[in-house]
Design a protein that fits this description.
With 80 residues, this protein is mostly helical. It has helices at 2-7, 13-24, 30-37, 45-62, 69-78.
Length: 80
C-alpha cells in the first residue's frame, strides 16, 4: 500500500525510481519495484522510511503545513 501511494507522488515510475535512487545512493530497478509491489521481495527498511517520509511531507504541504527535517523524521519514525 505504501509503495502504491508513494508512486502517486511522482509523474512516472521512472521519475519515482530516479528520485529514490538519487536520495538513497542506490540502483533499484523497475523490476525490483515490481517485486516490492507484488511482495516478491521485502521492502528494505531504508526504502520504506524514505517513502513514508516523502508521503508525510507531501500530505503536510498539501494541508499548508511546513515541517522541518527533524519533525518529518520523528513523525515518519512514529508511523512505522
Amino acid at each position: 500500500m505504501l509503495i502504491k501511494q508513494w508512486l502517486k507522488l511522482h509523474k512516472t515510475k521512472a521519475s519515482a525510481l530516479r528520485a529514490l535512487n538519487q536520495a538513497l545512493g542506490a540502483r533499484y530497478t523497475s523490476n525490483r519495484l515490481y517485486d516490492w509491489i507484488h511482495d516478491k521481495h521485502r521492502l528494505p527498511i531504508k526504502v520504506e522510511k524514505y517513502m513514508r517520509r516523502e508521503a508525510i511531507e507531501y500530505i503536510a504541504e498539501s494541508e499548508g503545513l511546513v515541517l522541518g527535517s527533524r519533525a518529518l523524521t520523528r513523525l515518519a519514525r512514529k508511523l512505522s
